[in-house]
Design brief:
It is built from 7 helices and 4 strands. It has about 150 residues and is an alpha/beta fold. The longest helix is centred in the N-terminal third of the chain and has 15 residues, at about 40-55.
């Protein structure tokens, strides 16, 4: 099973996982790491490295980070170079709940690269203008017409 790691500022990752597990149930081979005030980047990078190794069961690890270019992203990027030859892991920035849900539900069915691509698509499709979704002229017509 593909491991899933969520690396964020503060407890965002922990709360995303908690929210996802409310929907899909308790998960195994998943971890979160949060960066807090006073944490060193080197120490945090080592935690990311150690956790990726712990989650790897032979099918790779999908890492989600919250913000491209932020410290969690940079700490993960440092590990990519380290693991490039001997371990599969992929990373997606801009983590959101639809991405995490898709990863948890499909990680037994997809390979790592396919799962990464699917999660990116799910994350993008989850971004909507709710007002436009509910009150666009087309949707108002559907409601009026009873469709």
């Amino acid at each position: 099973m593909i491991g899933v790691l969520i690396v964020t500022h503060g407890d965002l990752g922990k709360e995303l996982l908690y929210s996802a597990e409310l929907i899909v149930g308790k998960q195994r081979n998943v971890a979160t790491l949060g960066l807090f005030h006073g944490d060193s980047i080197d120490g945090f990078s080592e935690k990311v490295s150690k956790t990726i190794k712990e989650l790897e069961e032979g099918e790779g690890v999908l890492v989600f980070v919250d913000l491209y270019g932020g410290s969690p992203s940079n700490a993960t990027a440092l590990n990519m170079k380290k693991f490039f030859k001997n371990m599969q892991f992929e990373c997606i920035t801009g983590v959101n709940l639809p991405m995490v849900l898709e990863a948890l539900m499909l990680r037994s069915s997809y390979n790592l690269k396919k799962l990464k691509e699917h999660c990116i698509e799910a994350g993008l499709l989850g971004i909507k203008d709710l007002y436009q979704q509910l009150y666009s002229e087309e949707n108002i017509k559907k409601v009026v017409d009873g469709r």
